[in-house]
From TrEMBL:
Gene source species: Paenibacillus agricola
Name of the protein described by the UniProt record: Flagellar filament capping protein FliD
Record keywords: Cell projection, Cilium, Flagellum
Domain called Flagellar hook-associated protein 2 C-terminal: residue spans: 234-299
Gene: fliD
Pfam families in the cross-refs: FliD_C
Length: 427
């Protein structure tokens, strides 16, 4: 911006020297000389005429106004965009140890009461703990077993050598079960010193349909290792929503509001858990406060630029507020024309009348939309049009007049093409 302001000053100085040379020509003929012969002569020109100083003030004021207008536009667009905090949701649970959840954008503002009677669980079989390095008691030779799951039975077998220990046999059984491609997790576990080992088999998914059984066909591998021992039975979840009849599900996830809300059951609670889908209040307050701050900055710049900028420039912005229901959304208009956000009213409106709040902020004619339009009206036209063209120096700059001698007609000059030159190409 400094370079632009300097350019304005140079244009003004050109005009000043042009006028001075023209006066010399009228008095005694044209005398060719450089525009500025020295630093001292340039300073003399600057001191003699106020154009350069006025240009710097005007350019700086208008640059600041347009910069803050751009920031106001950005703050308005943040509330108007599809990713606005007005579209975001938070999930509040009265018992987060029992139920948690997530909500997508545009989820309905709502409250649910969930009573869980039973959680969905996988089946878990835990085998016997066997001394890892001891010779296996499982019968030598081929041991065949069968796995039944989801109505399907698959047989598998292992061949046991007399010299193998328990750890080696458990490794073979784990590999054989994995090769069945059943939806099971098979883990070979042991104590902290690895002196004993056992197999733990669990279904990968929850729900009663995930139950499975393992039995010996011939040999005693299943019975000896204990992999047929069920320690946790597969079961479905059962819960009630807002006092409804019991709902049964294979999973602990509850999908609501066209699946835009997902709740997850973590534990059984003695009483119903209240789950509230709420606006992103922290985000809304932050974005509304940013809009208010940007407006106040622009209002201050326009107020400080009285006499340089046209009254229409201020009216474009401040006139938008007169028809808006500001107090209903927690925005107060101060006596000096600035705005102040009342957090309590804003939160109350968001909690109890969110639709009205959203309409008042970004609906047609809402605060964000109105200020966004106002900012565009400052940014879109050529910037020089925002100047107060009634200023004496502005008129002198654009239409220089002087009289050669008394009783002589007034001559009007426009030394350089100045239409819009004050600001249009600089800011």
């Amino acid at each position: 911006m400094i370079a632009k302001v300097s350019e304005v000053t140079r244009v003004y100085r050109t005009n000043e020297i042009w006028r001075e040379d023209d006066q010399h020509w009228q008095q005694g003929g044209w005398q060719e000389r450089p525009l500025v012969s020295s630093k001292e002569s340039a300073e003399l020109v600057f001191q003699r005429y106020a154009f350069g100083h006025h240009a710097r003030i005007a350019a700086t004021a208008l640059a600041e106004v347009l910069t803050v207008a751009g920031q106001l536009k950005q703050a308005g667009e943040a509330l108007l965009s599809p990713s606005s905090s007005l579209d975001q949701r938070t999930v509040e649970s009265s018992n987060p140890n029992a139920i948690i959840g997530t909500a997508n954008q545009h989820s309905s503002i709502n409250s649910y009461y969930i009573q869980a009677d039973q959680l969905a669980k996988p089946q878990i079989n835990k085998g016997n703990s066997l001394a890892s390095n001891q010779a296996t008691p499982i019968a030598s030779g081929s041991n065949q077993m069968k796995l039944t799951m989801n109505g399907r039975t698959t047989s598998f077998s292992v061949y046991i050598l007399p010299v193998e220990n328990n750890y080696q046999v458990l490794q073979k059984i784990r590999g054989a079960i994995s090769q069945t491609k059943a939806a099971l997790n098979v883990e070979l576990l042991g104590d902290s010193s690895n002196e004993s080992s056992y197999l733990q088999i669990s279904s990968r998914h929850t729900g009663a349909e995930q139950a499975f059984s393992i039995q010996d066909i011939y040999g005693n591998a299943a019975a000896t290792t204990g992999i047929n021992n069920v320690v946790l039975q597969a079961q479905d979840a059962r819960y009630h929503i807002d006092g409804s009849s019991s709902i049964q599900s294979a999973a602990n996830d509850i999908y609501l509001d066209n699946e835009s809300v997902v709740l997850t059951l973590l534990d059984i609670a003695e009483k119903p858990v209240a789950v509230d889908i709420r606006p992103n209040m922290a985000g809304i307050k932050s974005q509304v406060q940013a809009l208010v701050n940007r407006y106040n900055s622009l209002h201050l710049m326009l107020t400080q630029s009285v006499g340089l900028l046209s009254s229409e420039a201020s009216q474009v912005v401040m006139g938008k507020l007169s028809s808006l229901p500001l107090e209903q959304i927690g925005i107060q208009l101060n006596s000096d024309g600035s705005l102040r956000m009342d957090t309590f009213v804003l939160e109350e409106q968001a909690q109890f009348n969110f639709a009205a709040l959203e309409l008042s902020l970004r609906g047609f004619g809402g605060l964000a939309a109105a200020l966004n339009v106002a900012a565009n009206k400052l940014l879109d036209p050529p910037s020089y049009e925002l100047l107060d063209q009634g200023q004496t120096l502005f008129q002198s700059f654009n239409n220089y007049q002087f009289s050669e001698w008394d009783d002589q007609p007034v001559n009007t000059y426009l030394p350089v093409p100045l239409s819009g030159i004050l600001m249009n190409d600089y800011i």
